[in-house]
Fold:
Amino acid sequence: MKPGTIFLVSILILLYFNSARSQDTSDMKRKLEPLRNNFALAIHGGAGNIIHRNLTPEQQQQYKDKMSEALRAGYAILDTGGKSIDAVEASIRIMEDSPLFNAGKGSVFTYEGKNEMDAAIMDGKTLKAGAVAGVRTIKNPISAAKKVMQKSKFVLISGKGAEQFAKEQGLEIVDTSYFFTEERWKQLIQVRDSAKTDSLKNDSTGSIINKREDHYGTVGCVALDRHGNLAAGTSTGGIVNKKYNRIGDSPLIGAGTYANNKTCAVSCTGHGEDFIRIVAAKTISDLMEYKGMSVSQAAAEVIKNKLSEIKGDGGTIVIDKNGIITMPFNTTGMFRGYIDRKGKVTVKIF
Amino acid sequence: MKPGTIFLVSILILLYFNSARSQDTSDMKRKLEPLRNNFALAIHGGAGNIIHRNLTPEQQQQYKDKMSEALRAGYAILDTGGKSIDAVEASIRIMEDSPLFNAGKGSVFTYEGKNEMDAAIMDGKTLKAGAVAGVRTIKNPISAAKKVMQKSKFVLISGKGAEQFAKEQGLEIVDTSYFFTEERWKQLIQVRDSAKTDSLKNDSTGSIINKREDHYGTVGCVALDRHGNLAAGTSTGGIVNKKYNRIGDSPLIGAGTYANNKTCAVSCTGHGEDFIRIVAAKTISDLMEYKGMSVSQAAAEVIKNKLSEIKGDGGTIVIDKNGIITMPFNTTGMFRGYIDRKGKVTVKIF
Structure:
């Protein structure tokens, strides 16, 4: 070959590898390692209109510290050969117990000034799942979801029935006042006031949801354990000022939460109704299983295309059966992080 | 060619066409017609262990008459150019109002002796959806689901909140005693008694679900209208003797109910938890969209393979964008029927 031809071919080869790389790249991409040695865990703390001027450096650090703590709690279980489902529960409990996130303590208020929480968990090995919706007295809804999966014939239970079940199972029950936080209460008043003074924009439910104004704050976790099993979990207080015992996507298997050892584990965050309509989590899995997409391609297709097509907001964290993690979102930010096999923590907001 | 060769070739051609036909055949297969002229509607009234000796000829006729009435109600709307979503609602209301089916009047009782109903509806054109769960006073839950879709920002609302919404929307509210039927009450007593006398088999929820003993009786409808739009709806009283405000697959978009103009409209019936775990309805749609399966292949794959793999029971009715209908089930029977463009009704049980 002539030098010119060699140069041209080299350029083409370089371009090809670069495009293949960028197609499958996320900032969370991990090296493939032998399965028994490989494990991984990722979390989110909600996606939304998170901008620098709304969070002081101190607040940002608070979020990062709490996410790091959550990651380490899950890591401790995976590192010692524990199950992904237990790691998911452990990580989410840390975030539920923190007032920083819209789940457990720190949940948003409904129109009526109540906290109504939803959670789900799914085991990718057995396809067993458990979920609770609209619970008001269970300290850790994610643990109730796990009990539903393990100890009942049902997948989804709700309201007072779910609370009774949690009590029978010996889970911690708290007074509804436990979930009160000053900041969330102020947020409700603000949103309710703006709904009143802006009644022309009010929808017929009487419930203004300021899609662009707030981040949603749902928490979630996905994990791959050393046995090669995937799990996913999501927990949330839902949408501020919600009415009519609304249930979001988080407790709905296939919408906000899904896990399948064949493909991936998924936890979503954002405007729940949009995730329900596109059955987001299952669609990511199906794009991998039926269309042969990589985890990054499948998650991007759902968040950047399908969600955006219906003008939906949010993001997702997904881990595949090889431990590759991707975390796309179409909002300005998403609280998110992952921990690698050696315990190195990475957390991001914007 | 020699006569022998011609004979052999003819046989091969015949075999080929027969195999192609059987692969894509259901007793519901319809001719393809120009879209504007084509419309179709199918219903189910539940799948389960329905056997001849449990239904007298008179009872079978009652079911067939009521299903025919439901089919004609939807047909009347489609025939005059109405919307599939309205046809779905109309057909389901007929079955909700009949004590024969486990939806609306005739719903099964919970462990506590209550009726808690779920319903969902979805518009395949817009991917908008609405659903209610655990409602006790709304005469026609399917109409409440439609109002949620049309008049609220939410997809799924539940319990007392959903009842309040229905009331505000002017839907008919009834006393809980309206839903009482002698037959369903006896069924509850029987199931509760067998749970008590058979406590060794009792699961930890204290709720025996006699998977093999009863048909589930959920009702559903799928339709294609003259505008080329698909819709699906499902309504149910859930599972007899259920506890903890259990929510089944019917009101969950992607599990028991789904519609998308790109692919198909789906309504499922059976043991709800299994349909949730495999996200049945969305999987049928995804097998068509991403794997290029026909509607019959996709529905069969989910019911005969995926559902059976997790030892699930039930069936589904699916209509594709061309009006082709398929109705697979893995139980001994499924109340089902369809009406063709000329108004000819076909109803079946076994």
Notes: Residues 1-29 of chain B form one domain. Chain B is about 35% helix and 20% strand.
